[in-house]
Amino acid sequence: MQRFDYKVLAADGSVLSGQLRAASEREAARQLERKGLAPLEIVRHAGTPGAQRGGGRLRREDLILAFHQLATMLRAGVTLGEAVEAQAGAGGHPRLAAAFAGIATQLRRGEPFHDALAAARLPLPDYLLQLARAGELTGR
User: Fold this and answer.
1) CA pair distance 86, 78, nearest whole angstrom
2) Which of 21, 44, 84, 113 has the largest CB neighbor count within 10 A?
């Protein structure tokens, strides 16, 4: 078990922080969601082996967690622009932070989310871009 530091959005809109133990970042996110909290940031505690990943290779788990957090914020009523900006500042993988910062900039310019997501050039499956486009077309 690893120790994780987290920031979450509570149902009342307040931002809370704390620590928990879990086998992975994904499991930490699941634990928080079961408590009715929307994860904004989950990072390995500074004293945990492997916590200082630096840049390194962007892992599939990093992508999954980032988009899971984005979806959770959207379900909690956070606007797309705010959720993307939160992900840009979440302190995750540097490549993800840069991608979300670029997406946020494009959204502020009025670009559609699916175009901004495609321009980020993240290693995402094609269907994710199609789902983003379909969501925009249906207003969801």
Assistant:
1) 10
2) 84
39 contacts 69 by C-beta, under 8 angstroms? yes
Count CA within 13 A, CB hemisphere, residue 61.
Answer: 10
Token pair of 85, please? 């900006």
Cβ within 8 Å of residue 128, ≥6 positions away: 67, 117
Q: Which tens digit of pLDDT belongs to each residue from 74-122?
A: 989 999 999 999 998 877 788 898 899 999 999 999 999 999 999 999 9
- How far apart are alpha carbons 108 and 90 in whole angstroms? 19
Q: Take residue 100 and report the two structure tokens written for it.
A: 């979300």
* DSSP per-residue string spanning 62-113: HHHHHHHHHHHHHHTT--HHHHHHHHHTS---HHHHHHHHHHHHHHHTT--H
Measured between alpha carbons, how far is 124 from 64 in angstroms, rounded to an integer?
A: 10
How many angstroms separate the first and last alpha carbons of the chain? 37
